[in-house]
Automatic annotation (TrEMBL):
Residues 31-313 form the ABC transmembrane type-1 domain. One of its GO terms (cellular component) is plasma membrane. This is ATP-binding cassette domain-containing protein. GO terms for molecular function: ABC-type oligopeptide transporter activity; ATP binding; ATP hydrolysis activity. Keywords: ATP-binding, Membrane, Nucleotide-binding, Transmembrane, Transmembrane helix. The lineage of its organism: Bacteria, Pseudomonadati, Pseudomonadota, Gammaproteobacteria, Alteromonadales. It is found in: Cell membrane. InterPro entries: AAA+_ATPase (IPR003593), ABC1_TM_dom (IPR011527), ABC1_TM_sf (IPR036640), ABC_transporter-like_ATP-bd (IPR003439), ABC_transporter-like_CS (IPR017871), P-loop_NTPase (IPR027417), Type_1_exporter (IPR039421). It holds the Pfam family ABC_membrane. The chain crosses the membrane at residues 26-47, 67-91, 136-163, 169-189, 253-274. It is a multi-pass membrane protein.
Length: 585
């Protein structure tokens, strides 16, 4: 699915309001930058008056001391202009860095609250690209391009006013030329922006491709798919380059057209001006000052035309960022605070109706009660809906109809944080982060002491292998725990859940077979974890179903049988088949 169909579209006005909102807290820096901007532009403009004075009174008037005074004035003006430029440049770059840092923080916060269903519809590489390259563009645009555009705009307006004061007739010529110069901006700037945005989308495609193939590098290499991956990647790179070429084409055209138009206008004005000097209507100093301003104004227009493409690129990048920020948090937080549950709660699923978006109903009028402290094993064929029940309990998706209660509280009313604080989940693929063993286990409870972590690891029968690692608990585990065996990863995940010490346990047993010793260790770790908790296990192990208080057989979203292992082996054909084929022991 294309990511743009998942995201809310935004318009330019929203983008500007959003950027304005981000600049608002830094109004002093913005004000400082604007003052510096006016000061620097004012100083450069004053230089023109110095030129006129020097020519009319110094050279032509033949007064060397006037020339000295003029040179001193010019030096002072240059120093003021340089200092002001330093301040403007510093403040604008600071603002660029600051607001892109703020946007990154805001975006990350937002992403962390979007439900897994959102991420199932958008590619991670796409999100990462928006996160890194779009914020970097914004940083450059606010810090550099916008600063240059503003400076040029102020200089242009100032130059125009001073030109008017020097020679109204020549200024009229300039004013007639301005709309001609603006035509290419109006026509070409939207094209630059469209291709800039498209270009970013294509770069994001590349990011998504790299993310996927490197993430699954073992599969890529095992299937000798390097060549085809590289070919697909080359095609995408070519597409990105193709779009970038259009963007560059329109940008270059814009710059070139503006340059030729503004230089022709200056030439025309110089010609009219020279004739006026011959006729004695204006002095040579006035014409020099006028031309100085005209060149300043022309230079400003040229700068604006160069950076306008960049600014358009910034608007495109902002649009892409804002789209991510505008994606609504689809799981609405409840309002009820859950008091600390003294013991394992009962779970009631009442007349549940649920379908994944754009999919047929999976659960229809499904009801299930799990008593406080009960250990229930879910078994059933692939696609029966076992994992979906976990997702619903954690409110990654909301039920369409019916209700789920935890300790008597409807989970929809509970604050999400409080609900999830009651539940520890151990997923089928044990999640291990690229940090130390200690921090991996501590993920279960942020404020746990080192001693608590070690105690949890001991209860999970993980302490022995952890101590044998090169740096014990401080050993860095590779990305996704590649440096550990499957059984070791499982025990780390179990230790994390033990440390979290939550009254409800959702356990998705790993299907992969472990050797007898690892299996025994993991089984012992699980028994230690389940003690005193309401537990639902998606069971793939014989030991688990044998020790469960109740086994629920699920088939296509329905309970087809329930009871103890021995009982079901006698009475239920589906279960017997499942047990014989699937339960690993
Ligand atoms: N995000 C999703 N969007 C749409 N349909 C989904 C989604 N996740 C699962 N399904 C569908 O819902 C049904 C139940 O899936 P579920 O993962 O709950 O089954 P399961 O019993 O846990 O299977 P397994 O044992 O293979 O993990 C399947 O038909 C699956 O295709």
């Amino acid at each position: 699915m294309s990511s743009t169909t998942v995201l809310t579209q935004v318009n330019t006005r929203e983008v500007l309001r959003w950027l304005g909102g981000h600049l608002a807290p830094y109004r002093w820096q913005v004000a400082g930058a604007i003052v510096a901007l006016f000061l620097a532009s004012g100083a450069w403009l004053a230089l023109g008056q110095g030129v006129k004075y020097a020519i009319d009174n110094g050279f032509i008037g033949d007064h060397p001391q006037v020339l000295n005074q003029a040179a001193l004035a010019v030096l002072i003006i240059c120093i003021i202009a340089s200092l002001a430029t330093y301040c403007r440049f510093y403040l604008m770059t600071w603002l660029g860095e600051r607001i892109s840092a703020d946007i990154r923080m805001q975006l990350y916060q937002h992403l962390l609250h979007l439900s897994p269903s959102f991420f199932s519809k958008i590619r991670t590489g796409e999100v990462i690209s928006r996160f890194t390259s779009d914020t970097a563009i914004l940083q450059t645009v606010v810090g550099m391009s916008l600063s240059m555009a503003l400076r040029s705009l102020v200089t242009f307006i100032g130059a125009l006013i001073l030109m008017g004061a020097t020679s109204p007739l020549l200024t009229l010529c300039v004013l007639l030329a301005v709309p001609v110069v603006l035509i290419p901006i109006r026509v070409l700037a939207p094209k630059v922006r469209r291709y800039a945005r498209l270009s970013q989308d294509k770069i994001a495609d590349l990011g998504a491709h790299i993310d996927q193939s490197l993430h699954e590098i073992a599969t890529v290499q095992a299937f000798n798919a390097q060549t085809s991956e590289a070919r697909q990647f080359d095609n995408r790179v070519d597409e990105a380059f193709g779009v970038a070429r259009w963007r560059i084409h329109y940008r270059s055209l814009l710059i070139g057209l503006i340059m030729v138009l503004s230089l022709s206008a200056i030439l025309l004005i110089a010609w009219v001006g020279a004739r006026q000097v011959f006729a004695g209507d204006i002095s040579a100093g006035e014409l020099s000052a006028f031309l100085f301003y005209a060149i300043l104004a022309g230079g400003s227009v040229a700068t604006i035309s160069e950076v306008i493409g960049e600014v358009q690129r910034g608007v495109g990048a902002s649009e892409r960022l804002l789209e991510l920020l505008a994606s609504p948090v689809d799981i609405v937080d409840g309002t009820t605070t859950l008091p600390h549950l003294p013991s394992a709660p009962a779970i009631h699923i009442k007349q549940l109706q649920f379908a994944y978006p754009d999919s047929p109903a999976l659960f229809n009028n499904f009801s299930l009660t799990i008593d406080a402290g009960e250990k229930v094993a879910l078994v059933g064929a692939s696609g029966a809906g076992k994992t979906t029940l976990f997702q619903l309990l954690l409110r990654f998706y909301d039920v369409n109809e019916g209700d789920i209660t935890l300790g008597g509280y409807s989970i929809k009313q509970l604050k999400l944080h409080d609900l999830r604080n009651q539940i520890a989940m151990v997923s089928q693929e044990s999640v291990v982060f690229a940090t130390t063993v200690m921090e991996n286990i501590r993920y279960g409870r942020e404020d746990a002491s080192d001693e608590d972590v070690v105690a949890a690891a001991k209860n999970a029968f993980a302490d022995e292998f952890i101590e044998a690692l090169e740096d014990g608990y401080h050993t860095q585990l590779g990305e996704r725990g590649v440096r550990l065996s499957g059984g070791q990863r499982q025990r780390i995940a179990i230790a994390r859940a033990i440390l979290a010490d939550r009254p409800v346990l959702l356990l998705d047993e790993a299907t992969s077979a472990l050797d007898a010793r690892s299996e025994k260790m993991v089984q012992q770790a699980l028994s230690s974890l389940m003690r005193g908790r309401t537990t639902i296990v998606i069971a793939h192990r014989l030991a688990t179903v044998q020790h469960a208080d109740r086994i629920i057989v699920l088939d296509q979203g329905k309970i087809t049988a329930q009871g103890k292992h021995v009982q079901l082996m006698k009475s239920d054909t589906l279960y017997r088949e499942y047990a014989e084929l699937q339960l690993l022991s």
